[in-house]
Amino acid sequence: MRILFITSTRIGDAVLSTGLLDHLMRAHPEARFTIACGRVAEGVFSRMPALERLIPIEKKRFGLHWLGLWAQVAGRRWDLVVDLRGSAIAWLLLAGRRAVMRGGRRPGHRLLHLAETLGVSPAPRPVAWFGPADAARAEALLPAGTPWLALGPTANWVRKVWPPDRFVTLARLLTGPGGALEGARIVILGGPGEQERAMAAPVLAALPEAADLLGVLELPEAAAVLARCALFVGNDSGLMHLSAATGTPTIGLFGPTPAAEYAPVGLRAQAVLAKGPPGAAPMGALSATRVAEAASALLARPDPVPLGETVA
């Protein structure tokens, strides 16, 4: 069985789509998958079992990237084409079955919209794939012996970034005497590039004892690192979604973006919202004390967290 799966150009949306892939692999263990995604999201799928081919989509003017993709996949008859981009390409291919996600903004969590494309209920939770080499590097970078607190102080939009001093205060509250992760070591994660480095620089400067893994990890390595952490706290970002997918307790920080649509989803993941109108609140309206309280409660919680749970 051959399945073509067309998914997002962005890391966060790509991670959310992994739940559908995991569902399809379980339903069709003999299937082989071709994944078409944005180049920055390739690492989300590069260690996926049953992967036959990975096709990066490079956006071009006038939608010419779709023509390029069609040229690469039109020579085969597909048993199933899943198009989460809502394009016309699924209808231009030979396919036994097509599942095309409806475009446009809709109320409800993005994961529910993805699941509706295949009529799957309940919506399957995202997963994170990494290999033995990724796990070995993660173990070398984050040695066992003490728990690790991971911080994600960067994002692709400056308004989504929690003030750096709040991350520092939070780290002290959680790892200091009486904290939920007393004695834990700190690791700071983020993507490559000068913009990410500039966002994280104040946190790194204030926490010189922290391990600096900013921009040095491939996505499967980042997944392996996150899987070793006791807790991740970070801005609304692809890294936040990847952390939740590993099963690591994850706190996503939300202000000007809608947690109702993009809260992290995992067995132990939830969003903490800044005070103000949902999806339009300033990140400065979220205190470190409040986040520390939410994190402590999450760590003490024995039961799985419902999909898209938020702390207002």
UniProtKB/TrEMBL annotation:
InterPro entries (UniProt xref): Glyco_trans_9, LPS_LOS_Heptosyltrfase
CDD domains referenced in this protein's UniProt entry, alphabetically: GT9_LPS_heptosyltransferase
Entry keywords, A to Z: Glycosyltransferase, Transferase
Organism superkingdom: Bacteria
Keyword set includes Cell membrane: no
Pfam families: Glyco_transf_9
PANTHER family: ADP-HEPTOSE--LPS HEPTOSYLTRANSFERASE 2, TETRAACYLDISACCHARIDE 4'-KINASE-RELATED
Name assigned to this protein: Glycosyltransferase family 9 protein
Species whose genome carries this gene: Roseomonas nitratireducens
